[in-house]
Write the structure tokens for this entry.
Amino acid sequence: MSLLFAQWHTFTPLCSPTILYPWRSRISRLIASTIPRRERPSPSSVFRGPETWARTFIYPSPASAAVVEALDVAIGVGLFAVGLVTSLLVYARWYVKVPPNQAFVVYGGRRTGGDGFRVITGGGLFVHPILDTYRVLSLQPVQVVGRWDVVTKDGREVRIDVLCNAAVGRAQEQLERAARQLLGKDEEAIRAMATKVLEGQARTLAVGFTFNQIKFNRESFAEPLQQRTNAALGSQGLEVRDLQVNEVGEPFHREEILDRLRILTERVTALEKDGKKR
């Protein structure tokens, strides 16, 4: 019997809430210092079960037991509240909402697709901390204004003013192309690239039109120009919208006119000198 008691005496404290909840033992000792301690359980009470011995060991008196239970509940509720608030703050910090004029390119995590990234438009998403990273791709149209002197089919030179808007397409394929080619570029870089492509297509297309066709039927020139530019910018994920040819006229070469004025001035000066000599 004494051997059995020794085994219970050794095993029971390991199963007690003192081991599972360390703060209970500290609270119990603090309260026990002010409340008279109840007599320790007799060896016979140990055989009633480990739970009875553990409760008697932790709660020296009924008054202290009630206080410890209340504090235990308060600490549990407090820890739960702190964990809940922390979780909400982390979720609010990493949950991003996508504006209608932007697209978010998410990369770095496991759920990024076969290309290593995914493009999100509209709604919102939760970005996993450490694993995921996202960057903003603007869908705002960029205004492109161009003025060039092009050569027509009949060999005449004509000056055209072109106005259009270039923006990233909303189709998923166009968004993925733009994410590969335009991510990190600012508005000026996109405008410069679109202007060069538009100028090249305008010069190439003007060779198939006469001067009168471009001047008096601008829509017949603007429509194929927009189609050709869309095809050229499609590899970048861009598309041209609302292309207009505002003005068509004779080119104004300022340098040539200044040269002619200089030549005429020199001739007039030479004639005046000859007249004075005579």
